[in-house]
Design brief:
With 162 residues, the protein is of the alpha+beta class. The protein has five helices and eight strands. The chain has a six-stranded antiparallel β-sheet. A two-stranded parallel sheet has the order 3-6. The N and C termini lie far apart (34 Å).
Length: 162
């Protein structure tokens, strides 16, 4: 079976337990500006960040308590939904020096990688969540100010001769 030409990836994130949900969301919002130029470079078409505060998840769980097929509420603080040109291009993003030098260290300040989860198209578990949607990139166009991320991306590319 040939790989699809467009792939959706969903990543579920947990915050470090040493910070509050509010602090996590504030840092994650700033992080989006660093990610968008790098993701666009690697074939990401749409990038949606969904903040999933516990109060919204609890409200949804309560509202569905009597539903015949009550979904399990996912315990994550947020998720990202990305549409990519291909999985190969997205995987290439993680080999880009920008990931190691900018993205990963920034995420380490607020994301608990041990309790986060990544799923490609068709792998999302039968569970649910509720949250606040932030569209950082739509149809390949940034929806937020990405000047800082673009500057850092150019610095890393210049450093590595790209």
């Amino acid at each position: 079976m040939s790989a699809p030409s467009e792939v959706t990836v969903v990543a579920f994130f947990s915050r470090l337990q040493s910070i509050t949900q509010e602090q996590f969301y504030a840092e994650w919002n700033k992080h989006g500006a660093l990610e968008v130029p790098w993701l666009k470079k690697h074939g990401v078409i749409n990038y949606i960040q969904m903040q999933t505060p516990s109060n919204l998840r609890n409200e949804l769980e309560t509202a569905l308590k009597d539903a015949p097929h009550k979904p399990k509420m996912l315990p994550f603080d947020g998720c990202v939904i990305m549409t990519c040109e291909s999985i190969e291009k997205l995987l290439g993003a993680f080999r880009d020096p920008y990931y190691a030098e900018v993205i990963a260290p920034d995420e380490a300040r607020f994301v608990d990688a041990q309790h986060s989860h990544l799923a490609a198209s068709g792998e999302v578990p039968p569970a649910g969540t509720a949250g606040i949607t932030n569209r950082w990139m739509v149809d390949g166009k940034p929806m937020i100010d990405v000047a800082e991320g673009e500057k850092k991306l150019k610095e890393v590319e210049a450093k590595h001769g790209k």
